[in-house]
């Protein structure tokens, strides 16, 4: 059963920018779905369309079994969206913010109080209740913002870059919160992120998009094995040394797909053992001072770079 099915979505803005082109994707009910893509790939445009704030130029979208353009009002009452800027009012207390939200959705007062208490305890917000919201850290504000959006018991929760700019502890707390929302509330989560390890550890399904179109969609495991291509990594002592030798090694060993990542040269290879032998021999014979050489299986980041970098 699908929560969202988008087919052939095109979006051309008035200024002529084609933000989405023939995009297709499907999100299963009850899963965490992560959308990955470089800046300008069209992620926020897609979220604005799925949350009915923006109309596509063409295409069809079924959400929770309904056509979202014909039944936009119903859909709006069944979803919630946490944008990058928080929607909380820092002049109000935590409780006032939550009760205000419940009035927007016309939730009866006793029911609203019950929901609020559950959310406050489930999302670890109790200890912050006595402090003014204006004193909250960015991570706690974001947590409150999500709790507010859960007041209406949405079937789908959209999150545009929920963990951007957070330190690792806050991000991990946020991951736990998202898993709880999926597991305990049964809510489908659709999020965008730039953090590959986040998508990898958190999502049931990942979709990578480029230039307004999906390039691949699958489980993190499926994506990692997609290229079925190992990489060879030659590590140097300094970034400068890696940079100095990269062209030299690529030319002498006739390597095509080579890139630099800090102190490491990364080579895509179809025959990792043969290439390892060839390169290792060359490095030793040429007295190139490398730190280590190894074969490694593709990470989600490798797959992402292979699929989104423009020289493909
Ligand atoms: N309101 C708008 N009018 C015209 N062009 C727009 C508008 N909003 C976005 N764009 C353009 O559409 C393309 C996709 O933008 P979008 O914001 O959807 O990308 P994104 O994937 O969310 O990027 P980021 O990772 O930087 O948030 C970009 O080329 C952008 O400049
Ligand atoms: Mg965006």
TrEMBL record:
Keywords: ATP-binding, Nucleotide-binding
SMART domains cross-referenced by the UniProt entry: AAA
This protein's record includes keyword Nucleotide-binding: yes
Superkingdom as given in the UniProt entry: Bacteria
InterPro entries assigned: AAA+_ATPase, ABC_transporter-like_ATP-bd, P-loop_NTPase
Stretches assigned to the ABC transporter domain: 4-236
GO MF: ATP binding
Protein name, UniProt field: ABC transporter ATP-binding protein
Lineage: Bacteria, Bacillati, Bacillota, Tissierellia, Tissierellales
């Amino acid at each position: 059963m699908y929560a969202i099915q988008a087919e052939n979505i095109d979006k051309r803005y008035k200024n002529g920018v084609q933000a989405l082109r023939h995009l297709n994707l499907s999100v299963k009910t009850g899963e965490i779905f992560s959308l990955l893509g470089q800046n300008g790939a069209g992620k926020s445009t897609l979220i604005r369309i799925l949350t009915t704030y923006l109309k596509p130029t063409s295409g069809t979208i079924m959400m929770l079994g309904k056509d979202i353009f014909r039944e936009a009002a119903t859909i709006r009452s069944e979803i919630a969206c946490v944008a990058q800027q928080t929607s909380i009012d820092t002049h109000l207390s935590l409780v006032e913010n939550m009760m205000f939200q419940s009035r927007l959705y016309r939730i009866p007062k006793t029911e609203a109080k019950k929901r609020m208490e559950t959310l406050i305890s489930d999302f670890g917000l109790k200890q912050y209740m006595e402090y003014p919201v204006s004193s909250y850290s960015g991570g706690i504000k974001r947590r409150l913002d999500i709790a507010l959006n859960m007041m209406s018991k949405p079937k789908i929760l959209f999150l545009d870059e929920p963990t951007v700019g957070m330190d690792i502890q806050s991000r991990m707390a946020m991951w736990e919160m998202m898993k709880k929302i999926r597991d305990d509330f049964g809510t489908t989560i659709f999020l965008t992120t730039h953090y590959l390890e986040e998508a990898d550890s958190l999502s049931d399904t990942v979709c990578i998009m480029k230039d307004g179109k999906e390039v691949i969609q699958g489980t993190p495991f499926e994506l990692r094995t997609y290229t079925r291509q190992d990489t060879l990594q030659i590590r140097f002592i300094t970034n400068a040394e890696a940079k100095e030798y990269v062209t030299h090694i690529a030319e002498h060993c006739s390597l095509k797909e080579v890139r630099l990542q800090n102190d490491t040269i990364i080579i895509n290879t179809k025959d990792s053992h043969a290439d390892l032998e060839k390169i290792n021999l060359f490095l030793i014979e040429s007295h190139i001072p490398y730190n280590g050489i190894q074969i490694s299986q593709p990470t989600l980041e490798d797959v992402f770079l292979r699929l989104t970098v423009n020289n493909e």
